[in-house]
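Weekly modeling sync, notes
Attendees: AB, CL, MP (scribe)

Item 1: holo prediction request
CL wants a bound-state model with 5-O-phosphono-beta-D-ribofuranosylamine before deciding which constructs to order. AB pointed out that an apo prediction alone won't tell us much about the pocket. Agreed to run with the ligand included and paste results into these notes for async review.

Input as submitted:
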Amino acid sequence: MSIKRTDALRVAVLASGRGSNLQAVIDAIEAGTVQANIVAVISNKKDAPALERAKQHGLPALFVDPKPYTGRPDSREAYDRALLDVLKQHDVELILLAGYMKIVTRVLVETFMNRMMNIHPSLLPSFPGLEVQKKAIDWGCKLAGCTVHFVTEGVDEGPIILQAAVPILDDDTPNTLAARILEQEHKIYPRAIQLFAEGRLQVDGRRVFIENGKPKGEAVISPS
Ligand code: GRF
């Protein structure tokens, strides 16, 4: 049974780059299809375009500098502790990783277990990591896609919430394929957030069940 909230879900977005997924979430919130408030956009890169996008929409844009923590044996954990302070100050309920180019540690994972999502441009568990569109083409896959998943300590390993598949065309380059996948990322990330906001995601081990989610039993064949 999902419990209807009367207040909007408090979300923080962690981003290191251009922030197109952040923009998709902002747009969905502004359009009213996602009931959430972005209470902080945080970056480890001072000049991340994602921070600029946040400012343009009047959202708190925060740069948390990794430099004071580098060189320490626990540099990643120490950085995440600094992030945790900021997240707590903002009463964050859900973290979204959106092109966040640092590996998060157990400091964040344990506090935000099943409350931190990531979007990844492959059909996980195929192709975790980087340059995954090139890897899918080189492997000869006929389908590629994207995955929204909860974040665990293993990179791109957490329970899968939603996936979207796209065909790989004969003349695809990593860039053309990435663009086709990105269109779907911008659809499924807001959808996953809204499902979370509605309390409709139940995690059971590796599996995420969606209350009243009715996947159609249709095959996707490529080439059709
Ligand atoms: C996206 O492809 C996302 O799947 C991956 O990093 C990229 C970020 O793009 N994790 P953007 O910064 O959201 O435009």
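Recorded for review: The chain is about 35% helix and 20% strand.
Action items: CL to compare against the apo run; MP to circulate these notes.
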